[in-house]
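Show me a record, fold above all:
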Amino acid sequence: MQSEVFEEDELTSGFLKFDEDSDSDFNFEALDMTHYISNDLIAVAASEECLFIATRRNKLIRKRVSFENKFCELSFPYRAMSELVGMYPDLIGNHCIFIMKEGDHCYLSLESDKIVILTKILNLPITSIAYPSTTTSTSTGDILLGCKDGTIYLYRIDITRSNEVQELTLKKVFQVPRGNAIYGLVYETYECLDKTITLIVIFTNETCYQLTGSLPFGNYFIKYDQQKVVIPKGKLKVNEVKFCYQYFGNGLFELRHFVWKTDEGAYYGDFRIKDDVKSSVLIKDLLLEKYKSRSITDQKIPNAVAVTNYNLYFLYSNNLAVVSKISKEIEYSINFKTNEYMNGIIHDPCGKSMWITSEKGINRLIIANEHKNLWRQKLYSGNFEEALRLCTNSNTMYFKHVAGLYGDYKFSEGKFVEAAALYVISNRNFEEIILKYLTVNENEGLRSTV
């Protein structure tokens, strides 16, 4: 087992800026990895602490986020030389499980440079993994493993004081009806009145299941309280699920959003926030066809998708379109080089950036201030009150403009007194307001303006 750590100079590492538009909410950069990869990048995964980069040469490059120019190149064990098909770090980066095509799955902890084979899950056809929102450096906590045959296992890894890997649990806890492969799996625990409730969401190539119940997991799956099912039209050939967490610092995350790419469109929705005990998951339907025109190809379905608090990200071979979940309009778009086929997009769980990949390299889309124009999106969707509130707290330069538009809306609804109160704090001309009320012979509202 060999590992090599090296510091790179400014010519061979770090970020190369493509665009320096200070007015944009997004800044696109390229991570120069030519020293390590040459047209053989196969997978990238991101966590709070680490960026994991796998190549076809069975090499793993781990970049510590807190060290700008520090990379560690690791080798997989000789007994685990089959093709890597997935990397699953926890949100912090304390742990990462590597799923191999032939079942010789591996593991790496944050404090170690040694990748080891996991013997308890040897040959399991794993297709998805769900960690708890918070882990420690010495334990993964309870993990759920979703498999190709629709089976879900309970699993756990602990690290001893001597830095040895211990696989403590492997227990079958659920079987998805009809044995469909599990492509997405997540769970979150909520304090709800006098008890603790856990929400589990399972995505297959036919169905999205929502299960709620109480721990422990073994009993949970046998006697769950409810099972809400969303069924797309027919069996799906295209299947990709991405999640978004709210980051509170110090390793604290809360599950918030998801997007589910299918061959008929993208389903996306919001998970309930922890202090809301009345709701679970809301799923909305958004067809991808609307956005293909922004790609320079005729792709109907993007290569990859991602989601944040406010936007959906659709990655095509030569184009990225960032679409507002509120206005349904494209907020940002960028075209890539025609000879570079973009194939993956990974959301930094801390919410600061998107990692965009091709076989040739890695690019980073820095999200500087994604919510800056949220007031405008609320305005487009007709939520004037929320738009005005957002302009009160920030974007104060637009407050009077929004107040005037809100006043117009109230006026059109016949709520003349409420409209007058908004016109008074707007940037509307006084004579214009007076004429508006005289036209409809509305004296009460007119008196409110003077």
